[in-house]
Amino acid sequence: MPVIDSHHHFWHYTEADYGWIPPEWSLIRRDFLPAELHQEISAAGVDGVVSVQARQSLEETDWLLDLAASHSFVRGVVGWVPLIAPDLEAHLDRLAAHPAAAKLRAFRHVLQAEPDDAYMLRDDFNRGIATLARRGLAYDVLILEKHLPYTLAFVDRHPDATFVLDHIAKPRIAAGELEPWAKNLRELARRPHVACKLSGLVTEADVTSWTPAQLQPYLDVVLEAFGPSRLLFGTDWPVCLAGVDYARWKSIIEASVAGLSATEKDAVLGGNAQRLYRLP
Q1: Which strand (E) or helix (H) includes residue 133?
Q2: Which of 24, 94, 232, 244 has a Cα at 20 to 30 A from 44?
Q3: How far apart are CA 52 and CA 37, in angstroms?
Q4: Percentage of the residues of the chain whose pLDDT score is greater than 70
């Protein structure tokens, strides 16, 4: 079974486009492109990746598809489209004509940055999600832990859709708080059409002083809640580099699933990404 990193980004860095990167993370305020990632995954024993949008623009979705067309290790793309737009179908039809359209497997909106915490409950947004589901496209849920109550209502509106929760919903790891994140996450995991990525934990901790032991209670909750059939290994490279290198994060996830069977480990490390994103 191939090992698939289900969550990473490419970018040409500009401060205007990536203003969310704080000055203290100067290490990642530069370009990150396929040649560098290919070196990382080759050294870490990863076979392929899913490239996820980092800017909310159709131009970036096109660019990611162009990269996927020319790099076989990019197995899938999570792009962006204006889900609330009346002409959403036309945008999707245009993207479906791209040479790498078979790798366009999901979309994402940066819900965590919306001023309205209940943005995901808008009728026009939900019409967009329903359109994705009809086309067999998944949706990546990017939120903070405070959004989990809204997310429960959101995913319940689309029982036939496939949702993949990014970064375990960003619990308050730096503050050492498990609740109410753990309670709400367990409730979300009761929905069988929701999966979860094991990614983004280090950057929710103190990137200069975190330890694996600090992260373990959060990993334990997620492993118990979702189980090995709905968890996906992801690195969040290059964002993770603010606090951990690529290979070390993979080793932490491997250690966290060490007690699982070989089949279950294969699922977490690649099989679930292949199945849930329907990677070609």
Answers
A1: helix 123-134
A2: 24
A3: 14
A4: 100
